[in-house]
Amino acid sequence: MVSNWTEDNLISIRERVYIHIKDLILEGEFKAGDRLVERELAERLNISRTPIREALFRLESQGFVKTVPRKGVIVADISEKEIIEVFTILSSLEVLAAKLAVQKLDDETKSKFIACINKVKACLQDKRESDYSDLHFEMNHLLYSSAKNTKLYEILSGLSDYIKAFAKLGYKKTGRAEQSMEEHMKIMEAIVNQETEMAEFLTKIHIENSRKAYIESVKKGEKK
Fold first, then answer.
1. SS3 call for 65
2. Gap between the Cα atoms of 111 and 192, Å rounded
3. pLDDT band at 221 (very low <50, low <70, confident <90, very high)
């Protein structure tokens, strides 16, 4: 993939570098406290340092990395308090997204929700845990985009990435990933049935369960 990064690619080199580095953080290759050195990243991606510098600046503005005196840019180590604050914001905005998705539901979007529901059912039935992550992304994208509000989509996508990067401990709790899939499925069913209050309620429950799973996992980690 890196070898194909040329200036004539459809996606700008700046955007590709930003997405690539952010993905490495989200996937855990770069962990909290790891240094991100411009020169090393430029050599790794075989590009100039300018798009690397711009990507790191953008990631810092979003809280994924921070600049530390005498150390340079490192992957941020986010506190439990900050993550819980993000869960609180995410709850309110996802509830709004669910409400708007019901209000703006059309036949095309309804078909997408039904197709996604069927995918989730098949995945749960076959217990294909390896597919959970991709489906989780697909469900969030569908919910956020179905609200048909560009700014809301951008904010929710950023918060979702933030949770993925710094609060993934919660999904290591036994059964939580499967439970999360079931919760998403019920939310989508409520949207398809145009049950606004039910969709809002189920969304609140989903975020609260995710928050509790994260806190529980943190406490277990502290006891070890």
1. strand
2. 9
3. low
Q: Which two tokens stand for residue 208?
A: 């609260």
pTM (two decimals): 0.77
pLDDT, one tens digit per residue, over 37-50 is: 999 999 999 999 99
Look at residue 223 in the predicted model and tell me its pLDDT.
52
- The residues near 222 (Cβ < 8 Å, ≥ 6 apart) are none
| Alpha carbon distances (Å) from 50 to 55, 66, 150 | 9, 18, 29
**What is the b/e burial string over 48-86, where b = at least 16 CB atoms within 10 angstroms of the residue's CB?**
eeebbeebbebbeeebbbeeeeeeebbbbebeeeebeeb
Q: Among candidates 177, 173, 183, which has minimal Cα distance to 217?
A: 173
For range 52-68, the mean pLDDT = 92
Return the pLDDT at 205. Answer: 96
**DSSP code of 12?**
-
If you write DSSP's letter for every residue of 126-189 in order, what string do you get?
HT-GGGHHHHHHHHHHHHHHHT--HHHHHHHHHHHHHHHHH-GGGGGSTTHHHHHHHHHHHHHH
Average pLDDT of the segment spanning 170-197: 89
The pLDDT assigned to 65 comes to 93
**Cβ distance 199 to 187 under 8 Å?**
yes
